[in-house]
Structure formats: C-alpha cells, structure tokens
Amino acid sequence: DGSELVEVNNYIRSNQATVNAEMFGKYKGRNVIAVSLESLQNFVINNEMNGEVITPFLNELTQDKDTYYFNNFYHQTGLGKTSDSEFIVENSLFGLGRGAVFFTHGGNKYNSMANSLSNNGYFTNVMHANNKSFWNRDMMYKSLNIDKFYDVNSYEIGEGEAVNWGMKDIPFMEQSADLMKDMPQPFYSRLITLTNHHPFRLDEEDKMIEEYNSNSGTLNRYFQTVRYMDEAVKKFFDQLKADGLYDNSIIVMYGDHYGISENHNKAMAMYLDKEEITPYDSALLQQVPLFIHIPGSGEGQVMDEVAGQIDLRPTILHLLGIETSKDLQLGADLFSPEHEDFVIFRDGRFVTDKYVYAGEVCYDRESGEPLDSIEPCQPYIDRASLELKNSDTIINGDLMRFYDEKTGNLKQSAVK
Ligand code: GP9
Ligand code: MN
C-alpha cells in the first residue's frame, strides 16, 4: 500500500542538500546534451601510454575555462552496466544488486530527469545506434517518459562505418548532431557511444596510437579505442559549433562504467607502475571522468568533490532552474555547498575524502594503508546500506506510484 514510502521520504527530506544560489537557473532554457562515454575510466585522462597522449581533446577540456572537470567522480553501476548508468542518471536512484533494473522493473512508474524536463517544455530523447530492445530500452524509455528513441533505424550505417558492436562513434555522433538540427528546442538528448566497448576492436584506419604491450590484449587495445572515442567527441564539438547548437547548450559527458575488469589486474599494475592492484586501488579505479561543459561560462575548474552518477539529475536540473526539492531522489547537486564527499557503490563499497571502504577493510584514502580498526568507516557503512536499501525499497515496491511529484506529498494510500 506504499506505507514503506513514509520512512524513505522522511530520510530523503532530512538529508537534502540546498541549491547553489548563484548557479541555480543560471543556464535556464539551454539544451542539454548528455553523452555517455562507453567504458571510459578516469585513469586515461591526462595520462600517457608509452609516450603517447590517449585523450588529447578531453585533456584540453580539463583545462578549459568553460568546463567543470570532476576528477573524483565514480560510476555506481552493477550488472546492468550501461543500462544501470542510464537508470542512475535519469532517476538519481541506484540500480539493483541483482540483475538489471531495466529488465526487472521496466514497467514501474518513475520521475526521471526526462520526465522533469518534459514537464518544463523540453523535447527529450535518447540517441544510440543499437537495436531498440537491447537492455529492454524500448520499454524502459516509455516508463522514463522519453519522447523519442533514435535507435539504429534512425542512422545510416555506410560501408566501413561499423566495427566491434555496431556503428562507429564518429559517424554516429556526426549523424546525431545532424538530427539535433531538426529537433524542437529546448531539447534534452542523451547520446550513448559504443566503439569503446569490450573487446575494443578497431579497423586499421581508425587506430591513431599503438597498442600497449602488457599480457592483456584487452587493456592493450583499450587505449586505442579510447583514443578513437576522444576524436569522435572532438569532431562532435566542432559540428555543434558549425551548426549553431553549441552556444545554447550544456554538454555533460561521463564514463558509464569501468572498461577494464579485475581480470586484468596484472596488466593494470604494470601500466600504473604498481606492484599489485589492491582492493583499495580497485575501488579508486571505478573513477570515471565527468565533464560539465557550459559554453560561455568562463568559470570552469577542476572539481575534486567526491561524487557519483547519482548526483547528475539534481545538478543538471538545478543549472536549468528546475527545482528538485520535492523529488524522491538520492543524489545531491554537485555545486551545492552542502554536497557531501561520499560516494556509495552498488556493492556497498564507498569512497569519501578520508576513507576508502573495500573488501571489508577501511583504508586511509590518502596513503592507501588499511586502518587498524573499521571504526572510522562504520557510520558510512551504515549509511551506505541504508541508502541502498531505500533505493531498493522504492524500486521493488514501485513506490513512485504513491508519490505526487507535483506537491511532494504522499498519496493517501501511502499515508494510511
Ligand atoms: C549496448 C551498449 C553497451 O547498447 O549500451 O552495453 P554494455 O555492455 O556496456 O552494458
Ligand atoms: Mn557500457
């Protein structure tokens, strides 16, 4: 009957971060272009591989006056991989601990970012050149109230324009920008790239750097496909400028999840010049880059706030001047002075500015040394499990049905 919602709602209300008064609504009415960068981890940014730069364009953005680059930002996905990242970003809730919420709860009621933007006059869409039913997207997108899904049928894949899992990122982003020209504005487009996906295969002509030389072909090729994706993003920016879409948009780009699993620890240790990859290292390797690029802002900087994908919904909506104080969401605005340095992973691990909790060990964040006692981590362990539980309760009970997002009130059936 929804009565579980009372407790969850109280928790959310009492832990809400305020907005950043200076930034709230500063970019009202702009288009939002969100780009999910497949399997992109943060360790390649501003780094080299055998003397070669891996992400020249993204590196430039980290220094750019119009870009907020978050270098302490984490994915929070589970088995649902890309689809989990989509779920988290749209709903500011966690995916599930088992399976993919896109499959198991694709018919729930949600108050997604798309839904909120739709209520504020936006045309909302997802662009991804894959079969529409992959990850049950066609069904879930209806529940997320996404107006249109530009799936593989919206793209023309010419000779030599597909590799690995499907359409190459360069033509994909080029055609996506073309499609945007005809969209009613303001629009919210979420693009999902694909080329930098395991097993990281490329055609010869798309290889811009050499392979790495570890015992892992996967890691060796990863640098090349990342380099290719960087090129695709660069061309995409150029095209948005040429098409006149650039100045009136906010471009948010983030890695969806890790690309290199723990099966490649030996090779990763070699690359990172470490003796071994500890659970502490593995946790920090879940960092993915986040870029919030705001043409004309002039206030870009490197942000070291500890944060995660769950924070994107409130952050983006607030920049556009859309309130979320009545929404059932678990993340917090990254620009809020009250945003806390605390990110929870789906499996219960977490990172703060002082601690890393992984493998049931509490590590000192700075030194990577295990602490003698679990004590300093305990309050966070408890909160992590409560927040994950709250998220699961909302999803498993389909509790949004009992919530009136317009008023922030629980419906009668839930209060009784
Ligand atoms: C498939 C793409 C990749 O459409 O999103 O999915 P992943 O395997 O990364 O979850
Ligand atoms: Mn993915």
UniProtKB/TrEMBL annotation:
Keywords: Cell membrane, Manganese, Membrane, Metal-binding, Transmembrane, Transmembrane helix
Binding site for Mn(2+): 38, 82, 256-257
Gene Ontology cellular-component terms listed: plasma membrane
Residues of the full protein shown: 218 to 633 of 633
Name of the protein described by the UniProt record: Lipoteichoic acid synthase-like YqgS
Localization: Cell membrane
Binding site for substrate: 197
The family this protein is said to belong to: Belongs to the LTA synthase family.
Catalytic site positions: 82
Domain of life, per lineage: Bacteria
Topological type in the membrane: Multi-pass membrane protein
Domain Sulfatase N-terminal: 30-322
Recorded GO MF terms: metal ion binding
